[in-house]
Amino acid sequence: MATTSARPRAHRRTRIALAATGALAALAAAGYVWLSAGASPRVTGHPDCHAAPVTGPVEPGGPDHRAVCAVLGDLTAAWDAHDADAYGALFTADATYTSWVGTHYAGRQDIVAGHRALFDGVLGSTRLTDRVLSVRFATPDVALVATRGDTYETAPPAQPSKVQTYTVVRDGGAWRIASFHNSARRPVLERVQFLWMPGSRPEAER
């Protein structure tokens, strides 16, 4: 008899545990949706590099500003054409390149070889999009360009998933990229950080 009476209690505990698990899962899903809904950045950047804020010892809209923007435009064109040589030609011979997965390339030839393999493989059907956050000339010969960017196949994403920094330098008679760093944005984690530590929110996102 003890064994028989224990079975309903065990079934009840199982049902309660399942219900609690379902409730927690639903709560977690609702929390994730709420966090995601508020995770869009306020500063999304400009699709036209020439319209982005320009600071430093260079005239906005002047020849050097236009030349730096042209480098980014040529970079997009080379990517869209899946032309690794044209892509690499926009970097200095000793450039460094860090991808969003953490791969680090050292030198133009390394960048070309790596992207030739990528264009022949998983990136062969992708295009590139950039939204420029700022163009800051640290000196008349060095520009730091911050962008939100991404790859896509059919239509550019409304919110690019990566944040990128280009160091563009005067290299002989041309401007070329001396360093590139690509970071994947984690919108939910960023939202949690801002809620938990409001002081960590950048001024532009307040």
Structure report:
The structure is a single chain. The protein has five helices and seven strands. The protein starts with a helix and ends in a 10-residue tail after the last helix. The chain has 206 residues and is α/β, with parallel strands linked by helices.
What labels describe this entry?
206 residues, alpha/beta
What is the fold's blueprint, element by element?
Elements: H1 2-37, E1 54-55, H2 63-80, H3 84-88, E2 91-98, E3 104-106, H4 108-119, E4 127-139, E5 142-152, E6 162-171, E7 174-184, H5 187-196
Morphology: globular
Q: What order do the strands of the largest sheet run in, or round the barrel if closed?
A: 1-4-5-6-7-2-3
Low-confidence stretches: none
Q: Could you estimate the helical fraction of the residues in percent?
A: 25-40%
Radius of gyration: 24 Å
Structural class: alpha/beta
Question: How confident is the prediction overall: mean pLDDT?
Answer: 85
What proportion of the residues form beta strands (DSSP E)? Answer: 25-35%
> From N to C, what is the helix and strand string?
HEHHEEHEEEEH
Please work out how many helical segments DSSP would assign: 5
